Amino acid sequence: MASTTPVFVTGASGFIARHIVLQLLQKGHVVRGSVRSEAKAAHVRTTMEKELGDPLDEDRLSFALLDLKDDAGWADALAGTGVLIHTASPFPMTMPKDEDDLIRPAVDGTLRALEAAQSAGVNRVVMTSSVVAVVYQNPMPDHALMTEANWSDPESPACHAYAKSKTLAERAAWKYVKVHPEIELTVINPGFVMGPPLDDDFGTSMDFVKRVLGGKDPVVPRLKLDIVDVRDIARMHVAALSKPETVGERLIGVSDQMWLRQFADCLRGAYPDRRIARREAPDWVFRALGIFDKAIAGIVPALGKDVGSSGSKARAMLGMDFIPAEQAVQAAAGFLIERGHMG
């Protein structure tokens, strides 16, 4: 049910977060979002007004300038809100030299958001985690379908810096609410998020689609991806607000799995005139490249592993009918091509 008490969305300019903000507004919620600059706030407002066909005054959509790495402003920003949806977390295309560049903002930012919520008397929290906090076992199995009962092991060779950041941030959130049981937490664990952005300011997952569409690589590694549409992930966050039975639960958001070869085939089927690599390279090629390239080294432990995660719990608890993976991938590519991002 819509409320005049604002829903606070951290990282409101993010790919997933913008869809969450839109769906909240469509359902009549008042939204307050955190962004890192006035320019980001203006951009999000413009996007929402275009989507809704309606001007949005401060009574419906407002913003606070916050930084995951800085305490300033968090307590004041959450005062007077009723729900926290915490989406903010860094997600780079390439892993940094120092993994703490990802881990510290993710963990510390999560705790800042939860502490501010607790201080403001905000008891309902929905947090965006990831399947990378689920699937990276130590050692990686050859074949598995993971569920919410599984956790990634930060010590696993397959657990790259981003996966560590999401795993440790989610662990920190569950530990925090154990000490503060008045906070009712639900965690959403999306797969690799496809589907159409709401505007031309998009993030890492779209950069990956651009790379494949652009034929940047002559071959693809034997990697399996959990695929989900961004619109479904937003629906999961919003639906959880009206489902008290989701409190204390992790919910994986995944439509289906695709090997990278299938991902490329899906795009090539939709755009046959584009030079899209679809030939799989033997695993030894990427193992050899990984000796010299740290980014490639991060994928080596997952090469050839038939490992994915299941969205069945979200289907049961939230009534999700996920957009098929192929449609999600093609919607992302269609956006990039139609908006002139592929040259």
UniProtKB/TrEMBL annotation:
Gene3D superfamilies: NAD(P)-binding Rossmann-like Domain. Keywords: Oxidoreductase. It comes from the Bacteria. Residues 7-247 form the NAD-dependent epimerase/dehydratase domain. The keyword Phosphoprotein does not apply. InterPro entries: Epimerase_deHydtase, NAD(P)-bd_dom_sf, NAD(P)_dehydrat-like. It holds the Pfam family Epimerase. Belongs to the NAD(P)-dependent epimerase/dehydratase family. Dihydroflavonol-4-reductase subfamily. This is SDR family oxidoreductase. It comes from Roseovarius ramblicola.
